[in-house]
Structure to design on (240 residues):
């Protein structure tokens, strides 16, 4: 067991530390590194710990595993809520970080996912959503818009929502644009797979009938964003 815990700790640290140069350090990174350190320390010192302490650790580990399985299952469920073919919808492309003026890897994923859907469904219009952060040269919405137009999507099909700073605002502000322009009221949310469940819950709270259209997340980034999204789901449950 000692060797197993130490190996798990090392693997966990590798998984969550190696992607750091390519992403913004977030709560998923911090939680993953903390879990790795916990495994490592428990493996090193477990023979010196009392039996009651071991019981507490085991109970906490089981509860944590159960929570992760539940939250992970919800993330998978959310990514599979696609509309039936032919369902009239308006697309909302949820924003993500822009590096200067270029989309981040996650945002590129969403842009390419949206492009493929829009090419296959020429009747669908889309709201490009996302404001401009302090370290971004353009808004996330503008970045999405420019890349889609460059890829051949008719700009007349695209609307910009460039004031939001969170997923909740992405959806709420996009709803106003949809209502003001008489677009289809049912929406299809384009975001990364792990993010679909929470986005759907926020859309429901905003009074929208919503579906998801997920972009796949790179495997080496998935653990970090999975844990980050677990925290986001719990936060949404508690604070709305």
């Amino acid at each position: 067991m000692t060797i197993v815990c130490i190996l798990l700790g090392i693997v966990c640290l590798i998984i969550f530390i190696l992607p750091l140069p390519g992403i913004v350090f977030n709560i998923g990174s911090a939680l993953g590194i903390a879990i790795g350190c916990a495994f490592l320390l428990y493996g090193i010192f477990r023979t010196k710990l009392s039996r009651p302490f071991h019981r507490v650790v085991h109970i906490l580990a089981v509860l944590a595993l159960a929570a992760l399985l539940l939250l992970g299952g919800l993330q998978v469920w959310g990514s599979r809520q696609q509309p039936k073919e032919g369902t009239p919808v308006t697309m909302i492309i949820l924003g993500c970080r822009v590096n200067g003026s270029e989309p981040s890897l996650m945002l590129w994923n969403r842009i390419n996912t949206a492009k493929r859907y829009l090419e296959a469904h020429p009747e669908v219009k889309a709201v490009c959503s996302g404001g401009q952060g302090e370290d971004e040269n353009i808004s996330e919405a503008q970045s999405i818009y420019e890349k889609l137009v460059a890829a051949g999507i008719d700009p007349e099909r695209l609307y910009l929502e460039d004031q939001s700073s969170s997923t909740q605002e992405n959806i709420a502000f996009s709803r106003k644009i949809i209502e003001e322009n008489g677009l289809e009221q049912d929406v299809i949310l384009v975001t990364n797979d792990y993010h679909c469940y929470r986005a759907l819950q926020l859309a429901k709270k905003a009074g929208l009938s919503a579906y998801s259209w997920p972009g796949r997340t790179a495997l080496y980034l998935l653990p970090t964003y999975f844990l980050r999204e677990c925290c986001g789901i719990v936060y949404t449950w508690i604070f709305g």
Notes: The chain has two domains: 2-79, 90-239. The chain has a mean pLDDT of 94. The helical segments are 2-17, 27-45, 51-79, 105-120, 140-150, 167-180, 196-205, 222-239.
